[in-house]
Amino acid sequence: MKSGFFRSLWIGLCASYILLLIGAAVFAPWIAPYSYETQNREAILAAPSPKHWLGTDELGRDVFSRLLYGARVSLGIGLGVESITIFVALLLGTLAGYFRGKIDTLLMRFTDAMFAFPDILLAILILGISGPGFQGVLIALAVVNWPSMTRLVRGLTLVLREKDFVLAAQSTGAPGSWIARKHLFPHLIRTVFAVSTVEIAGLILAESALSFIGIGVQPPYPSWGSMISNGRDFMRSQPSLVFYPALALSMTVISLTFVGEWLQDRWQLIDRKSS
Amino acid sequence: MNNALLSVRDLRVYYEAQGRVIKAVDGVSFDLNRGETLGLVGESGCGKSTVGRALASLLQPKLGQILWEGKESHSLSRSESDALYRRRQIVFQDPYASLNPLWRVRDLVAEPLRVHRLLSGDALTQRVSELLDLVGMDERFAARYPSELSGGQRQRVAIARALSTEPDILILDEPTAALDISVRAQILNLLLELREKRGLSILLITHDFSVVQSLANRIAVMYLGKIVETAETTMLLETPRHPYTQMLIRSVLPPRPTGELPDLPAGEVPDLFDLPSGCRFRTRCPKAVEACAASEPDLNAWKEDRHSAACFRAQV
């Protein structure tokens, strides 16, 4: 990536877009001109106009409003699944990495087994059991997502526990809880946070994929994935039905990825200096 | 044992690697008397740092005893072992690694006090600036991060931190090895000064004879997990008896080079998995005879008042 000014500018743009998106998702009911299910029978498949900024879909629903509500799904899944992942990873990863022994062996074998399944197939399987919908997607993606982060935290803990500053604290009589709170977590949190940002991008894509094939968030509630899926039938006459949700999705994924990688660079630099 | 502050008896620390056992420390015994500085010297890999870590309770010895004023460390009650943690502090080799990079200097120095809940609030702040002053650092460094300090400054912080609980035993693990030569003298002077002021007893672990020479009263030389020679500093440096000690001392390059390098016996440190029979040094020893391969000499093999060497041929 370009260095200096242009990189800062680019990261700034990406970060602003993410903040804007979060704002849009939170305040969707207040800023959206229409509800996600309001049909305007006079304007079916309408082109963009002052009344419908991004046009309407085949049922006369406002695309812009549906995009805003769709952001709630994307970010809700992304943040929700990632929160569960971080919680599990910090708990199991530090326990396994710090105490080793049986928990560690068990964790490693179990996650190995999890890695043997392709993520999206496993998610589809779980959704088949739990049934589609927001909650189902949340559970399914959390189940496929936790192993890699947990392994990462375990690995970092293994490295950290051998660091001299941890030994120095131990040699002065600090108990395990002190080491975990004061030395391990502050280091882990930084990496976990940076990696999460990139992972959220993947989760948003996965949610879109599940909704695209119809087992994600159920209509009439919009998800970017289901909007793209529905829009396919009108690719010739109204390509904007696919274009706008796809644009929102790619911009979100790209922004999250760049910001996440920037955070990793920045924070690992501090760690590298110290070792 | 009598007035020894710390006694180590037949300490053994074994590591397991790929199913094989490395005897990193293989039967080490020594005493550290009150007010004394004992230098533990040897090549890298001889187990000297492992001894330090065992003394700092960072690893579990396989066998042997560590006695603090005659009491075994793992038989101490909770409050006694807390007291021991406060009385015995360690300074690590590399101040770039031993200070948490995310912490400010004041928190680094205060950590042992916070762990033991000794001070808080203003009294803690006050104590931290006293400690910084003690190691010759200005109060304004308190708000800095380690990355904003030089190596020497970092080591001062590590020393201030170690002194925070008013210990009487300090374990220094290569305290100057990671520092520039010009900074070494400053840190050594600081340690000398602190030892006088605080009446510290010090275990000094190093590979550097110039460091032991300036600090230690007594020296124990380690080779492959065992102590091979021990004596008062001047005696050991002037009349080393063990061929290994002789080799180590000869290998120190003089500050004013004559253009010639010392003539040292060739030979590699033997494989730790496959130690030679008898004396562990015999494969590199210029004086080795057949008897050296037959049995292993202990520290009583050669003895003259307070000087002993684990060598059958020390007389020769």
Q: Secondary-structure map with pairings?
A:
The complex is a heterodimer of chains A (275) and B (316).
Chain A: H1 4-26, H2 28-31, H3 63-99, H4 101-116, H5 119-130, H6 134-161, H7 164-171, H8 176-212, H9 224-231, H10 240-274
Chain B: E1 4-17, E2 20-33, E3 37-41, H1 48-55, E4 63-68, E5 71-72, H2 78-87, E6 88-91, H3 105-115, H4 121-134, H5 151-163, E7 169-173, H6 181-198, E8 201-206, H7 209-215, E9 218-223, E10 226-232, H8 233-238, H9 243-251, H10 290-294, E11 302-304, E12 307-309
Parallel strand pairs in B: 3-8, 3-9, 6-7, 7-8
Antiparallel strand pairs in B: 1-2, 1-4, 4-5, 9-10, 10-12, 11-12
How would you characterize this protein structure?
- The complex is a heterodimer of chains A (275) and B (316).
- Chain A contains ten helices and no strands.
- Chain A has a single domain, classed as Orthogonal Bundle (MetI-like fold).
- The mean pLDDT of chain A is 90.
- Chain A is elongated, with a radius of gyration of 22 Å.
- Chain A has 275 residues and is an all-alpha fold.
- By secondary structure, chain B is α/β, with parallel strands linked by helices.
- Chain B is built from ten helices and twelve strands.
- Chain B has an eight-stranded mixed beta sheet, with helices on both faces. Chain B has a four-stranded antiparallel beta sheet with strand order 2-1-4-5, with helices on one face.
- In chain B, strand 7 (169-173), helix 6 and strand 8 form a beta-alpha-beta unit.
- The mean pLDDT of chain B is 88.
- Chains A and B meet through helix 7, helix 8 and helix 10 of A and helix 2 and helix 3 of B.
